[in-house]
Amino acid sequence: MGLEDLLPPFFATKLQTLLNWSRKNSLWPMPFGTACCAIELMSTLSSRYDLSRFGAEVLRFSPRQSDLLIVGGRVCVKMMPVLQKIYLQMPEPKWVVSMGACASCGGVFDTYTMIQGVDQFIPVDIYIPGCPPRPENVIDALQMLQEQIGSGKK
User: Of 59, 76, 92, 152, which one's alpha carbon is 20 to 30 angstroms from that of 83?
Assistant: First the structure.
């Protein structure tokens, strides 16, 4: 029995709209950067691009305090169980952004030690193309995710 069952339909939809609005405007990202994409993510947080304007100001380095996982860079086979454990430790609702070509499809590292896309092991909501992607692309992906959260699709 959820909250929607206890409230009249009008109040339940308004409450869900309020929850979606607050979730989209207060994302707490956790970076999982293993290569050059992590450097670009750091520049996105600088004063020139200022990711905090969009409601994702404070990076959390604990999965229990974050709801957005940004995977950037190449992920090897031995690192994938760590990434899966981090994903499982995040509270619901949670979202994942695959940043760069290496995290999305393996990039130029087509070897037996590299994962050819993290979406084979954890669900990914937004893909950011590039090697490495520019800070503008990161901001655009965050805005796309916020639109999906605000509309209730994610």
Answer: 152
The residue length of the chain stands at 154
C-alpha 89: how far from chain center: 14
Residue 112 CB neighbour total at 10 angstroms: 6
Tell me the pTM.
0.84
The predicted-structure confidence for 45-96, as pLDDT tens digits, reads as follows: 887 888 878 877 788 888 898 999 999 988 999 999 999 999 999 998 999 9
* CA 39 vs CA 31, 45, 102: distances in Å: 11, 10, 14
Do 68 and 91 form a contact (C-beta atoms < 8 A)? no
What structural domains and CATH numbers belong to the chain? 28-150 (3.40.50.12280)
Euclidean distance between CA atoms 38 and 132, whole angstroms: 9
What phi, psi does 29 have (nearest 5°)? Answer: -80, 150
